[in-house]
User: What shape does this take?
Amino acid sequence: MSSSESQEPPPSSESISKKAAKKEAAKQEKLRRRQEVATATSAASNLSVDDDPLAVNYGDVPLIELQSKTPVDVNDWTKVEALDDSLANRPVQIRGRAQTIRPVGKKMAFLVVRENGFTVQCLVQAQPDSVSSQMVKFAAALSRESVVDVEGIVSIPAAPIKGATQQVEIQVKKLYCVSRAVPTLPINLEDAARSEVEIEKAIQAGEQLVRVNQDTRLNFRVLDLRTPANQGIFRIQSQVGNAFRQFLLAESFVEIHTPKLIAGSSEGGAAVFRLDYKGHPACLAQSPQLHKQMSICGDFGRVFEIGPVFRAEDSFTHRHLCEFTGLDVEMEIKKHYFEVMDIVDKLFVAIFDSLNQNCKKDLEAVRNQYPFEPLKYLRNTLRLTYEEGIQMLKEVGVEIEPFGDLNTEAERKLGQLVLEKYGTEFYILHRYPLAVRPFYTMPCYDNPEYSNSFDVFIRGEEIISGAQRVHVPEFLEQRAEACDIEVKTISAYIDSFRYGAPPHGGFGVGLERVVMLFCGLNNIRKTSLYPRDPLRIAP
Amino acid sequence: MSSSESQEPPPSSESISKKAAKKEAAKQEKLRRRQEVATATSAASNLSVDDDPLAVNYGDVPLIELQSKTPVDVNDWTKVEALDDSLANRPVQIRGRAQTIRPVGKKMAFLVVRENGFTVQCLVQAQPDSVSSQMVKFAAALSRESVVDVEGIVSIPAAPIKGATQQVEIQVKKLYCVSRAVPTLPINLEDAARSEVEIEKAIQAGEQLVRVNQDTRLNFRVLDLRTPANQGIFRIQSQVGNAFRQFLLAESFVEIHTPKLIAGSSEGGAAVFRLDYKGHPACLAQSPQLHKQMSICGDFGRVFEIGPVFRAEDSFTHRHLCEFTGLDVEMEIKKHYFEVMDIVDKLFVAIFDSLNQNCKKDLEAVRNQYPFEPLKYLRNTLRLTYEEGIQMLKEVGVEIEPFGDLNTEAERKLGQLVLEKYGTEFYILHRYPLAVRPFYTMPCYDNPEYSNSFDVFIRGEEIISGAQRVHVPEFLEQRAEACDIEVKTISAYIDSFRYGAPPHGGFGVGLERVVMLFCGLNNIRKTSLYPRDPLRIAP
Assistant: This one.
């Protein structure tokens, strides 16, 4: 049986003629049901639908109709985003949410319908042949955020429309409610979508507007996600992942999936989430570090992974999460860690370019609520050594321990200096002191107090950490010991290098940080779909 | 500072002229060091390098040279895969592993070098101007799987080469060992790469060849992954993920990342991994089901996720893992669950086509070790109802409970019957009995003993499960109660639907199963990079 044959409604074992008859019967039945429901709805609104010969043009869609295929094509629905003057005078059908409903007398109601953050104004106006005053009342009584099907004619309004993203209007002919929202919502979409600027402006005008705080947003994330800014943020996030992968696949990287369940405890450093694995102690991977290096020893040459990373740290900052999405890369190198930095450089310029080119509407939606300046970056990414970096800080009176690390404040200051001097908010700082890097970091050949490592910054905040790794097992043991790590606890890792290990290096990026900093947002919880922090594991 | 300027070796704060002088000094130093190492190596082999004016052409590469950039370009290395007769008489440099070393007298040695599963024969032959007999001895003494740099001239051999994938030979001029493998490996690559057919043939000829069992392979996964078949399998896996995403992105899906750390216990069914989350009971997500549905309620319209899925089940089968990579999809539907099946249909045809087009060499590498027939699939995927399926089984004497489920054996039998009747090994079975599906599955409109759900099969094994979901909160509560699920334990989930929920449906696929079944492999551990099962959490 071919696919097209089997698209008839089940059961499909009947004869064709029986099916046709049944289809007609079903059609009649559907019409009857719709009228019944319209009756019930109208009754609830104290309207008599018996008096309304146009009752078929509106009402609640019965569930049964959302379970059974009608002859309509999915493409019969136009996206709200696509509504423009090229469709003028054309009939369209849209599905979206009733964002705002404004009755004007008894004969007219304005309905703003939203889909994926885009909005269009719909006019429900009583008309002898199609729209009854009962239908206007039905529209006026819709609860906000209910899902509706609107059929109507696209028209060009005389004056520009305020309060909708699309500059056309729909003259409504039919209006059905697909799914009703509860009458009182815990947060109002208008409030959730409001910018700080608007709120401040209102305060200055002596007015008080509702400010939805971050925690309330997250408690009702399903509603919060519907704001245009959030619709933009997660579409941008999706595009970052896509650009990341497309660049790396074109550079002969292989996408891998490494286990998150790890025996014992991870490679050290931050606190881990522990669990019982079939009677054995286990933990959640803090990074795919070990397994991506093993994959290089397993001859994949160049690998990357996009996956969750778990950190049980008690970090209560704007930039730490207990679970985030890691973009990890590991690659063979021929001679020098700059080969890894070359990939970082080109990769991120490609990602930024792709966001600027492909996410214009999304960036605008974010900017409308959270204003930010476009990221300044160079075609060839600036590279400074750590020594050069602390020298720049020294010149403005900030003293840094030469073989220590930069704190968040110093990083931010250096970001400012770099922006002033080089005109970029994206740069690489490399040749970090060995003492502040993990034991598996390759020391510099000419000065073992430094290492073949780097951090990458956006707007003064670190987003990437990378390095050449020690690939010689004896040297790795020696480095582990120097860092007070018991060699036998990491013997499986070290043994991976005994069967011939190509020189290699790599880096890790936090997806949420990239989006947060590209968009100049102030909190990483804004760029995690359902964030996890020390105080939050819901929703 | 531009990128090209900063590519000089650090520290980069010196003047240009100083740098040039330093570079020359470094070059001389490098030569000296290389000779020193060559001396040491030769001494170890009881050879006097003092007698060898050509000692600079071979030896171990000192670590320092792998930490510091030389003037060479990464592109100076040719990929083994790219070596063909178009390069005849041209000098090339390759980096790969010494797979086999075969000395022929004292003046000649054959070296097979492997990179990413592709192999080339290299001839090290004593020659007055370039290759000394000490160098031949150095080559002959290399341990298998060591990483080597080979420089030489490409030549076309008189007779076809056996035991290498590339049909050209390299006349070696220089040979350096980058990283030495231990002399005795726990598993031999030749053994690990051998097919069952070869082993059986040898047995019939009275010969005994080593068979590396699955568990040993996994214990030494870093070596096992180097076989051509494994190189192919994980490149195919990477391509499945890529084709999956490219298709969905083109169909306006948004890629999301949902949390794997979940409060309480997951949506029910299989056993979960439990852990402590900052003093609160938590578990690892058994699927992104709840969060992907919430993302639909959050207005993303169409979403997908690629991420780990955790199942604590004690399943000791060829097709179950405790951690696998889930490909998950959720989408709004307008009227019918066939809209979801339409996506499944086109998506998988696109994935299969892309594997056949883009992974020819990888599929061949897998087939050489694990012979299989190409998957038979139709341009429009066959769809059968569950009723039709059990009717087909009944006709051959297999009785199935009408409102029960198919067991593995019945699924396999039905796969055979479908192949015979319709000529496809990929099909959709839909309209499953409601009783065997999760509580959130939408019942059929015309018979609530059936549901708007489907499974998808490859070669008689299930790979996809999907359905329309119940989007009406009151109905969802009712269904949960009917399935003996305490409504209050899932209230956060149900509440997500109270703010207007679009009708929607989706499906989940196991990435490892897709690769296993497309390639007709007999064990899912072959398609998981570092598999986790009830008895294995390493490496």
Observations:
- The CA atoms of residues 189 and 499 of chain B lie 59 Å apart.
- Residues 1-21, 31-47 of chain B have pLDDT under 50 and may be disordered.
- The first strand of chain B starts at residue 58 and ends at 60.
